[in-house]
Amino acid sequence: MGARRWAGRGGATAVSLRRTEEGLGALASGGPSRARLCRVAAGGSGRRSPGMAASPPSGALGRRVLCGTEYATVRYVGCVPPTAGIWLGVEWDNPQRGKHDGTYEGTQYFKCTENKIKFPSTSTSVSGVFSKLRILALNQTEVTWTEVLLCAPGWPALEELYLTSNNIAVLERPDNVLQTLKLLDLSDNQLLDGNQLHLIAHLPRLEQLILRNTGISSIHFPDAGFGCKTKMFPALKRLTINDNKISQWSSINELDKLPSLRSLQCHNNPFMDTEKNPETLRQLIIAKISQLEVLNKSEILPAERKGAELDYRKIFGNDWLAAGGNWNPEKNKPSEEFLAAHPRYPSLCLKYGAPEEGELKGQQPLTLKNQLLTLTIKCPEKPEQKPVEKKLPESMTVQRVKGLLYRLLKIPGSELKLSYESSKLEGKEVELDNDLKPLQFYSIENGDCVLVRW
Prior knowledge:
- Mean pLDDT is about 80; it is low at about 1-10, about 15-55 and about 365-370.
- The chain has helices spanning about 15-20, 145-150, 250-255, 280-290, 300-315, 315-320, 335-340, 345-350, 355-360, 400-410; strands at about 10-15, 65, 70-80, 85-90, 105, 105-110, 135, 160, 185, 210, 240, 265, 295, 300, 370-380, 390-395, 415-420, 430, 450-454.
- The strands form four sheets. Strands 7-8-9-10-11-12-13-14 form an eight-stranded mixed sheet, covered by helices on one side. Strands 16-15-19-17-18 form a five-stranded mixed sheet, covered by helices on one side. Strands 1-4-3-2 form a four-stranded antiparallel sheet.
- Helix content is about 15%, strand content about 15%.
- Strand 5 and strand 6 form a beta hairpin.
- The chain has four domains: about 1-115, no CATH class; about 135-275, Leucine-rich repeat, LRR (right-handed beta-alpha superhelix); about 315-360, no CATH class; about 370-454, Phosphatidylinositol 3-kinase Catalytic Subunit, Chain A, domain 1 (Ubiquitin-like (UB roll), Roll), CATH 3.10.20.
């Protein structure tokens, strides 16, 4: 007799006793684990086949069964009115198989188990268990960090560990375990306190840390001062902190202390709302983290980094002078407050020289709105490249425009040459020949066309 399902959703079904009787006892306990929470189902034909057993096999409840090629676990044994006969409600290993929400005619017959792994409460001997396991996903299993550490000796070669959505709020130091781990995903757990990260900061091979939506509001590495590198996270190359509550730029300054950091994702944090222009925001982050190569999945090319650092050095030049900075090295003593807000500023002055007095005259505060120019970007020697319209601040330097165009047009590391055409100068191109000059220096106006060649 074939199995019969009721309409709905879930990971279970009711099948007739005869259908599953042959499969009882065919499998040991355990078997493949489900990927998501399953729900209930039950059902039946109400008609007994010839030779059908009048009662289920002894100990049927909880036994493993095989129906065709699908594995399941018996969760219910009994009647399903108004049908006649004895029925077995089974929970499929494959959650896509079941189709019911657990209630039939107002009666809920059984529930599928939650995706909860049972761990030992004390450390047990796990020598040789999963000795070659490289990747382990325990998402949405309600596992605690303590339980992870108890079982971690059984994963001596583990490289990737996924623990999302487990309500993990407290971490512990992983002494002598997880030492081979290269990737750790703690997304959608409410860690809240950024200091919790210090407890996992000495994993020697950890290259990627994913902390999406963990509630953290700050990041701090107290073992290193301004301009120094921390001993924490020595191998960390890729960090994801999207969708958190980081509101202060000081946390971004701290990331410059990570010696190996190369890639950062930081969308949807309050600090990003302090600067409305997305290009300026990107330039600030680039200038603050010296070794960064990829920001929010977009490569940082050398020309963009140079432009960002030169602009940063100039934009905060007056603040540097007001805080005790000076062109004379013997008198150059910026305040601790300034260094806390701009820890990279001294190194930028060493790299490019202190900003000249002429650069700082009439410098607009960063918070003032710059007039936006609507410009059309064209590539005259690349007809397949369609013109693009962009709004750029008139104070944006030629260097920063080039950095934008590298990403916008996906141009390889070739040297860009920019010029512009104006309706007031018909038939004439004006070359943008000084990377440090702003667009307004060249009298570019709304509606002008910037020409890009490489």
